Amino acid sequence: MSRIAIVFGLLLCAITLAGLIVSMQKMPSQFFPMMLGIPILFCGVVGLNPHRRRHSMQAAALISTIGMLAGGGNAFFTVIRSLHGMAINLIGLRIVAAAALLCLVFLLLSLNAFWREASESRRWHV
Fold first, then answer.
1. Domain ranges of the chain
2. Where are the membrane-spanning stretches (predicted)?
3. Cα 116 to the chain's mean position, in Å?
4. Is the model's pTM score more than 0.85?
5. In whole angstroms, what is the distance from residue 68 CA to residue 32 CA?
């Protein structure tokens, strides 16, 4: 799971880099994926140590949950604003939505790994 966290952290940072390359207009929402990617990447590196793996992966899952909720909420309200005829930045919307989607996928993978680990530990302790 630590290697998966490293990959997802790098993917989130790559989304930010792609957004900075594509758009000349800089805005804070472009840096949202990197604000999530760096801590998830750090948790993945710390999780390579077997003694710290459990806590670091739980922290990465928490960061991913926050990213999914914040990014999904931001994308939702941006779409609502566009439906009311307000001007929006489509690149910023795509960046935040992609980050929220990546966070959702990472969270689902994390929950699957946590449940699998819990069922294995219950099997050995019974």
1. 2-125
2. 30-48, 60-80, 86-115
3. 21
4. yes
5. 11
What the block records as the tokens of 22 is: 């594509």
- What is the DSSP annotation of 40-83? HHHHHHHTTSTTTHHHHHHHHHHHHHHHHHHHHHHHHHHHHHHH
Q: How far apart are alpha carbons 27 and 40 in whole angstroms?
A: 22
Q: 10 Å Cβ neighbour count for 112?
A: 11
Give kind and range of the element (H or E) at residue 34: helix 32-46
pLDDT at 27: 83
Distance, in Å, from the CA atom of 118 to the CA atom of 104, rounded to the nearest integer, reads: 21
Q: Are 17 and 99 a contacting pair, CB within 8 Å?
A: no
Q: Say which residue the tokens 């530990």 belong to.
A: 121
